[in-house]
């Protein structure tokens, strides 16, 4: 990695960690559940300020060092800063008895089950058409491929290297497209079945926001996958010698992908985690506060373990991510399956394309 | 329908689920033929054991409010427009209401106040009391 690239990553990482508290729900500062009435506590403002100052200083130090190792080290220390801030919020909450005298509750909107959020099929048409088109083109050209194929480093062709033409060295772009499309399809099937993140204090508003948020997540995922499939098609065209590899094709592949990613990031920043920034009735108050399940969340609200919760996948407290409930037996089956797969890949018993 | 459960309430969770479903039907949020989530799905969404949801659904089924079958799951069986109640319902209901009215009387609520409050609640339902047209 060049110094300029390292600097770019350092700016990105620092900006990301500085933006994190603003993206989080006001009732989950640094992944700790606080009641609505406590979201504006001066203690929270102070912790946010300390955290931001530390992240900014760390970013500055990393920028001065500006080496490849500085980026990964920066991620680790920024994560530590975030975790420390999370502990500080938890301590302030405990010391101030922020949940004393409040009634805890949970809320569901049954219409999210009887009329669930669905991704209209036409959103998956572009990625599927590109996938099928690439596969057909691959089958058409497979017989006429040269003995050696170019190697790609990301979107850029590595002119200095070539590999022998074999099944996977020729077909990996199609395999990658297949995996990307499968991810979008699986997300469209699985995510609407996971527990909606409703707030018992504002059930109606949070249900409306969650519906819009989930719908947006699935649409943006479909857009990003379509852009990734287009980029893989452009790679495949160069790989199979349909077009001559050149930096122009790299730009053709990168532009849709960059636009899709940028669009998704801007959308996520606009709506916030689980859509808490979307318009809604802010004054709604059911008289309850959302169940305090802090004791089941670890590492600043990123790891969830609750044996009494029948949910397998839950929305993470911070960020647009879903995580396994490690208290669910099936979660461990999934993890063991992944570990076995990873072991097979490492020992080269199974060979991944690409 | 929105279903909110108070975890600190003395009323058991299954009873709260049962009460909220009946209230949603009375308020017109659910009608005859509307589906309810499966017991497992509602258990996941509320983060509670699905046996608790099963207990609530069993209670609603025994009361004739919902029907449960293997294929379509839990479905609302009746609402205000489904005709007169099952025989014996009104008498059993009046027995339970007697306790509530006795509480109000013991605590010194005047009869007019009690009737006014009953009317307020009924007005919030689809088939309001005074001048209710069943719409």
Give a concise summary.
Chain A is mainly alpha-helical and 354 residues long. Chain A has helices at residues 3-23, 42-65, 68-95, 111-114, 125-141, 167-190, 203-239, 247-271, 329-346, and strands at 104-109, 148-153, 156-164, 289-290, 297-298, 303-304, 313-315, 322-324.
What this model shows, in words?
- Helix content of chain A is 56%, strand content 9%.
- Chain A has helices at residues 3-23, 42-65, 68-95, 111-114, 125-141, 167-190, 203-239, 247-271, 329-346, and strands spanning 104-109, 148-153, 156-164, 289-290, 297-298, 303-304, 313-315, 322-324.
- In chain A, the strands form four sheets. Chain A has a two-stranded parallel sheet with strand order 1-4. Chain A has a two-stranded antiparallel sheet with strand order 2-3. A two-stranded antiparallel ribbon of chain A has the order 5-6.
- In chain A, a hairpin with a 4-residue loop joins β5 (297-298) and β6 (303-304).
- The longest helix of chain A has 37 residues, at 203-239.
- The radius of gyration of chain A is 23 Å and the shape is globular.
- The model of chain A has no long low-confidence stretch (mean pLDDT 91).
- By secondary structure, chain B is mainly α.
- In chain B, a hairpin with a 3-residue loop joins β2 (66-69) and β3 (73-76).
- The longest helix of chain B has 18 residues, at 89-106.
- A two-stranded antiparallel ribbon of chain B has the order 2-3.
- Chain A binds chain B through residues 103-114, 193-196, 200, 203-204, 207, 286, 288, 291, 293, 306, 308-311, and chain B through 1-9, 34-38, 40-50.
- β1 (104-109) of chain A pairs antiparallel with β1 of chain B.
